[in-house]
Amino acid sequence: MARRWLFALLLAASTTVLGAEALPVSPDPELERRVMAIAEELRCLVCQNQTIADSHAELATDLKNQVRQMLKSGKTDREIKEFMVQRYGDFVLYRPPMKTTTWMLWVGPFLLLLGGLGILLFKLRLRTKRVVDEPMVTEQHARARVLLAPATNNQSTTESI
């Protein structure tokens, strides 16, 4: 009986892990929607692979608060992004613009893919050149018949049983 109560207690305690973090309640839901839309386009400088909307780092929270204040003061989305780029560089943008300094980010994966395909084709061609189909000589035919003959005889005897 004690085991059942212990199991029920552990089961009830483990369900709290499944709860999601509550979003802060704001008096202006439209402002929060705009803050989150801009935050989805800005990279967290601490986490680097998360947007500031997804990050729980203190810097991300500060940046979201700064975006909120700038929106309250009447700045547009574009002005806010330009301010962030001036302050932190293109790295802060989750989707960096196509420039001469960032062209490798955009073209690099395709170049690597083409290079990999080129190496694969080169290796496959080398492999087909190495394989040469040589005809079997009569000695090899005779030896193959001798080696295969008992196997076929054994199979036919086991199948008849």
How would you sum up the global shape?
flat
The whole-number mean of residue pLDDT values reads 83
Question: Rg, please?
Answer: 34 Å
What are the secondary-structure elements, in order, as H or E? Answer: HHHHHH
What does this entry look like structurally?
The chain is mainly α and 161 residues long. Among the domains are: 26-97, Cytochrome C biogenesis protein (Helicase, Ruva Protein, domain 3), CATH 1.10.8; 98-128. It has helices at 2-14, 29-39, 58-72, 77-88, 103-130, 138-160. The protein is flat. The chain starts with a helix and ends with a helix.
Summarize this entry quickly.
The chain has 161 residues and is mostly helical. It has helices spanning 2-14, 29-39, 58-72, 77-88, 103-130, 138-160.
Note the topology.
Blueprint: H1 2-14, H2 29-39, H3 58-72, H4 77-88, H5 103-130, H6 138-160
Key descriptive features of the protein:
161 residues; mainly alpha; 6 helices
